[in-house]
């Protein structure tokens, strides 16, 4: 078995003459130009155009752009066997069909697919409301586990670990906008970031301990932000995106039986010959030095990409209230009560405005103009950035928040999970089933 | 209702401790204020909390970092989650545990439901005090 790493959760697994590619994200500037790889892939000669096309199976863990990159996917043939987990709604499946894939196979969580030549594959589904999944490939007893950035149930991880993993790729970093995009005083922000990083690294060690691979590779999770105005997001004291070498050290310090290995993009592990560190030498430069130099190199293209962004839809001030009125109206009154939020939008730009979505309003109008004084969650964003999510050009609203090109606040300062679920996927049945279940099981 | 006794000396201070009987797994936390006990399972992804850490009055799950107040079992960051409590009281130098045989007790279910309602109330702009920012 041979596994080549291409950054984030992308691995090319070659075994028994079969080539499986996981979560290919081979471009830069995901999520409205913000997310770059830990090291720029093109500097290792990796681009979608040059990437080998003789892939037998594609696995996509979920719809986030650093795992399902449409610009990369269009370089593969539409009838390539595409493996995904069976989630509770068909939104992901439908989207993949919509972008042209014709041979999609959904696997139940834990189901084993025999690919022939002694190669077997299983997909495991997250415990969370969001879509996400991990993959395990077994070739005649040699096993690679790629957790992607999926939060799995303890028992699933225990079961996977009991099989005997040779090499495991793990999520090790924060990958969202909490607390970094919130309005916190500086000292509180620094403390929240410190605690979050610590918890993330503790969790990594525990998952490695539980799955007990021979080799543990910190892989998915972080982005590198190269926008010169957002470089602070890469700082250890202000950002949740952890340096993979810190994660490697953390695992080593835990004295686990697993050997922790830093793999940079294009490095290879071969079950017979071991590791071949093929990545350019620059990929092993001190992290902040690499980021500063990469940001300088990329600044002109980032500025050009921002400049080329389409302006907001001229009718955005009408479309936004219509969009949220329709979504909230679809929900049952119990779900609206569970969400129980006043979601405020402060939208800047020529098509901007301010609105508050009141989940407690009697309806049918849930959106009113202006920022309600007693808002409970506020999003402050440019009109051109939110516009494609309102018009439907971008189907996954969470991608806006993952862009890190907004500010937000919440009152009180607690996680409103039902509101997050609504923003992630406002499917009325899914929301209803999830929250009915969560109330019963807790 | 089943009961058991554990010597207080067996429990480390400010550190989760795993205890098991007849397949029931319990996590105990001994602090300066008292001893707290819960079913040893995180409601998020079923990780054993006894493998986690204790700090600032909270038990932190080892898997994904969810935190729970030991005084109440509630998760301050996400009130939809809370732990299933096991009654723990001091009996001389022993900690007396008492638990219901059903996996989720009526008391816990009711308490979680109340906490959930309280959290909703806290988010309810009609009851929340006005804040200035």
From the structure above, extract its key features.
heterodimer, A: eight-stranded mixed beta sheet, seven-stranded mixed beta sheet, 13 helices, 32% helix, B: 133 residues, alpha+beta, 1 helix, disordered C terminus
Structure at a glance:
By secondary structure, chain A is an alpha/beta fold. Chain A has helices at 30-33, 70-73, 91-98, 154-163, 186-211, 244-253, 287-307, 316-330, 333-339, 383-391, 398-402, 417-424, 428-441; strands at 2-5, 11-15, 18-22, 35-36, 57-59, 82-85, 104-107, 112-116, 119-125, 133-139, 142-146, 167-170, 215-218, 224-225, 259-260, 268-270, 274-276, 342-348, 353-358, 367-369, 377-382, 406-410. Chain B contains one helix and nine strands.
DSSP summary, beta strand count of chain B = 9
Largest sheet of chain B: 6 strands, antiparallel
Compute the average pLDDT of chain B: 81
Shape of chain A: globular
Task: Identify the strand order in the major beta sheet of chain B.
Answer: 1-9-8-4-3-2
Structure overview:
The complex is a heterodimer of chains A (442) and B (133). Chain A has 442 residues and is an alpha/beta fold. In chain A, 32% of the residues lie in helices and 22% in strands. In chain A, the strands form four sheets. An eight-stranded mixed β-sheet of chain A has the order 7-6-5-3-2-1-16-17, covered by helices on one side. The radius of gyration of chain A is 22 Å and the shape is globular. The model of chain A has no long low-confidence stretch (mean pLDDT 96). In chain B, the strands form two sheets. Chain B has a six-stranded antiparallel β-sheet, with no helix packed on it. A three-stranded antiparallel β-sheet of chain B has the order 5-6-7, with no helix packed on it. Chains A and B meet through helix 5 and helix 13 of A and helix 1 of B.
